[in-house]
Amino acid sequence: MKHRILTISREFGSGGRTIGKTVAGQLGLPCYDSELIEKIAVESGFAPSYVQAAEEAAPAGLLAAFSANRAFGPTNEDLLWQAQRQVILDLAAQGPCVIVGRGADYILRDKADCLTAFIHADRAFRARRIVEVYGERDQAPEARIREKDKRRAAWHRFYTEEKWGDAKNYQICLDSGILGIDRCAELLRMLY
Question: pLDDT of 110-128, one tens digit each?
């Protein structure tokens, strides 16, 4: 089957962004990751700094779905989700591309021409990588990994009602710590 869209969900530090950009570069496709922040800001009317700060944060925790605030209409986080969803649908409609994160796997789940991937690795690999690649401090990279993954999982659960990282929600799951970043990119390119 020929795919037009590749979505990559990833654990923090696993190299999912790098893999997405590599595959996109090899295939001559646009890759959307942090570039989505500006597009979501335009669609939502919120400042890019607000969009970035609100990323991967479930609205005021999981209890927000039942809070009194929603009795008066959608929250800012809900409006951001709607804008994000629309931007991703529009990009997918425009043509082939790679989309990293932001629930694209869920948003595009019913598209027959979408390949969904999840990139993961053990904590030791990810801790080393965030220190080497992102310049994180050596003192507590594991704590940063736990926090980012916890936020991503909560955000994903809140908006999709699916368990983030569960293999049954993706067509392929790759361990970048075992396979390596380049091999993961190569495998996704071949499957695309």
Answer: 877 899 999 999 999 999 9
Q: Tokens 């969803």 belong to which residue?
A: 85
Residue 80 · residue 40 · CB < 8 Å: yes
**169: Cβ–Cβ under 8 A, 6 or more apart, which residues?**
105, 106, 116, 118, 162, 163
Give the dihedral of Cα atoms 9, 177, 35, 86; nearest 10 deg. 0
All structural domains of the chain with their residue ranges: 5-191
**Residue 178: how many CA atoms within 13 Å on its side-chain side?**
7
At 172 the three-state DSSP class reads strand
| Range 5-191 classified under CATH 3.30.310.10 | no
- Kindly report whether the global pTM for this prediction surpasses the value 0.90: no
